[in-house]
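Protein in question quoted in full.
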Amino acid sequence: MERTSPLGSLDSSTQGWINGFIGVLIFSGSLPATRLAVMEFDPVFLTLIRATIAAVLGLLGLWLFKQKRPTRRQWGPLVIVSLGVVIGFPLLTALALQYVTSAHSIVFIGLLPLATALFGVLRGGERPRPVFWLFSILGSALVMGYAVAQGLSAAPAGDLLMLLAVLVCGLGYAEGATLSRSLGGWQVICWALVVSLPVVLPLSLVLAPSDFTGISLPAWLSLAYVALFSMLIGFVFWYRGLAQGGIAAVGQLQLLQPFFGLALAAGLLHEQVSLGMVLVTVTVIGCVAGAKRFAR
């Protein structure tokens, strides 16, 4: 599964950017889908059940393809990945979306490239060129500057939760990408999900609503999306892309995620997307090109 790829004729760096871009496209629907889901599901239950569904599918995939168990050294990083992207980020964003709109929360995703790059240096041993950091910091500053201009005091709890979500997610991305070089991209997320299964499965059963009859079809579809695509399929492309093209470099593609996410928020949730949001998003796209050029 890991060796066969329609991108096999391309060099590793190019494959990394293509796989990373596909991952970003998939992740772009996560916050709008989560926003829809938390309107009818408890955010804690949503976090647990999406991880449980993805973990069962991941375990099935590992069994079908007869994957070997991780080594003793690999279990520690897998726990970090699980705490960061399986539990931490979904839970914190679900809680945040009780206070802020998905359009507002998407703005904070612009900080993920910087967080991922920082942890890529700390955990992955990468050393981007100094100019790279200029573009990365500039893109993140534009995103945060816009958020501050909108008035963070309007929902301080939501904004704080989003900032914490970005930090734990950046750590999970970097740790998983480093691990995927030896374990494999899709294997990393599947094993990280399996690590969480003994916790998320019983808790999801305990916290499950007593009655599901009032849950609408859009909420069920949103749950299906965040469980299947956001929690599993997106990471297959994302971790492979980070490992192939570099954590810091490919991680800058996340600056594009607000652009796609805002479009979805406007189209699916009918949330207002201001001109300022669009201008900030378009501006940071230019930072991706600059960061890519000086990443190595």
Q: What stands out?
A: Residues 95 and 179 are 29 Å apart (CA to CA). The mean pLDDT is 87.
